[in-house]
Amino acid sequence: MLTHGTHANTTETIRIFADLPPTIVRMSQLFNVYPLYDIEPVRAQGSYLWDADGTRYLDLYGGHAVISVGHTHPRYVQALTEQMQRISFYSNSVHIPQQQELADKLGELSGHSDYSLFLCNSGAEANENALKLASFHTGRKGVVAFTKSFHGRTAGAVAITDNPAIVAPVNSTEHVTFLPFNGLDGLDLGITIATCAVIVEGIQGVGGIQVATDAFLQALRTRCNETGAVLILDGVQCGYGRTGKFFSHQFSGIRADIISMAKGMGNGFPIGGILIAPEFKASYGLLGTTFGGNHLACTAGIAVLDIMRDESLMANADRLGTYLMDGIRQVGGYKELRGRGLMIGIEYDFSVENLRHNLLFNHKQFTGVAGKNTIRLLPSLALGTDEADQFLEALSECLVKHRETEVTQS
Ligand code: PLP
User: Fold this and answer.
1) Assigned CATH class of 74-310
2) Which of 174, 177, 184, 364 is at 20 to 30 A from 159, Cα to Cα?
3) Ligand 1 mean position to 79 CA, how many Å?
4) pLDDT for 21
5) pTM for this predicted structure
6) Beta carbons within 8 Å of 307's beta carbon, 6+ residues apart
7) pLDDT for 63-89, tens place per residue?
8) Fold for the domain defined by 41-69+312-409
9) Angle at 101 (CA atoms; ends 99, 103), nearest 5 degrees
10) What confidence score (pLDDT) does residue 406 get?
11) How far is the CA of 355 from the centre of ligand 1 (A)?
12) pLDDT reading at 4 higher than 80
């Protein structure tokens, strides 16, 4: 790069750069925050990805629970292509009928037709807006979150995330109290009339696929009713049909006041939102965003819901989840198996780093991880039995290899 004060005319500059290998003609670097696999997918379809050499990978990770209806689903691609050719963006100062269509279809499929929808662009942003709305509504500041929670990385969302390593000093606040996840003791003391919101994941994702018990969620509902605190269910990872019900907390029979969503909502197109119970009143300017609810995001969201409905993907998630869990039990060798539907955590009593490495590079299968010892499966809701079998076979072989290595090392 030419530094300030370097004298070179344009022709000279081009000549100098032309002499350098391409890697050196680099004006800027990516901020290096992601450890990367040395894999570059160039094409994807259904539950598979291909790299430039044509190697096929089975995707049991769904790009982190994002790919809900399958990669490049033809209906999804067609809907987005056609919308792009008509109009892709205008601001929230005009009618965007796709927003209402999305709200109608979401309300119907999720069983929340009486709730309103506010659209944004990501999970963290959905939680920010949920907190803000709860605070406006109650006039209070205190937030109760739970141990091992993950709610995002923006200011408010990271403050309610139980990971000090990602909370910058500017995000740290005394308004947040962390109580034990699934703990019933201490809720009365922790949730008070000063609490504006209680936020909880129906199934903790980053926290290791920890399922909230019915008793815990019901106790939170009761205590929020007693104190007037707003109950926010973070469905960003465990929502959108992944567990076999639209939202995982619906297994516990509770109603949330606000539900946050993102990830599977757009099958890869960035979109997030909150479903808001009828008692919250909207007013102009209370919440807002430039990109939230744009034509393309809504089109992606509508296509996802249409495909989920027409291809019965929630029922498939339920069926394939049971199939996978039964298969994993037969393979054995784990410490604990947790989850619901296609949100599965397999915890071992050893680090799963080598196991996942073996699955990825020898068996060409993507999986996720939580902590050091838990494999996280978050595949597309359209996963098939054949694909589940491929994973079970590979897992079994990898565990045999793991045991052999252990024996050699001991
Ligand atoms: N909430 C939960 C439960 C999540 O798992 C995540 C992301 O992993 C988020 C919020 C943040 O979502 P995003 O990365 O879209 O901001």
Assistant:
1) alpha beta
2) 184
3) 26
4) 58
5) 0.93
6) 69, 73, 75, 76, 313
7) 999 999 999 999 999 999 999 999 999
8) Aspartate Aminotransferase, domain 1 (3.90.1150)
9) 70
10) 84
11) 25
12) no
User: Does position 23 have pLDDT exceeding 80, yes or no?
Assistant: no
Give the mutation target among 33, 127, 150 for probing the ligand 1 site: most ligand atoms within 8 A of CB. 150
Query: What is the residue extent of each domain of the chain?
Result: 41-69+312-409, 74-310
Ligand 1 atom at shortest distance from the alpha carbon of 272: 15
201 lines ligand 1 (CB under 6 A): yes
User: Which ranges constitute the DSSP H helices of 25-119?
Assistant: 62-65, 74-86, 97-110
Task: Reduce the secondary structure of 198-262 to three states and give it as a string.
Answer: EEEECEECCCCCEECCHHHHHHHHHHHHHHCCEEEEECCCCCCCCCCCCCHHHHHCCCCCEEEEC
Q: State how far the Cα of 235 lies from the Cα of 387, in Å rounded to an integer.
A: 26
pLDDT of residue 26: 64
| 2 DSSP assignment | P
Two tokens at 258?
Answer: 């606000």
State the distance from the centre of ligand 1 to the C-alpha of 267, rounded, in angstroms. 14
DSSP annotation string for 6-52: ----HHHHHHHHHTS-TTT--S------S---S--EEEEEBTEEEET
Give yes or no for residue 312 having a pLDDT over 80.
yes
Residue with tokens 């209402």: 100
Contacts by residues 247-251 (CB-CB < 8 Å, ≥ 24 positions apart) = 247/110, 247/202, 248/202, 248/203, 248/211, 248/212, 248/340, 248/343, 249/202, 249/212, 249/217, 250/111, 251/202, 251/214, 251/340
| CA–CA distance, 299 with 102 (Å, rounded to integer) | 8
Q: How far is the CA of 313 from the centre of ligand 1 (A)?
A: 22
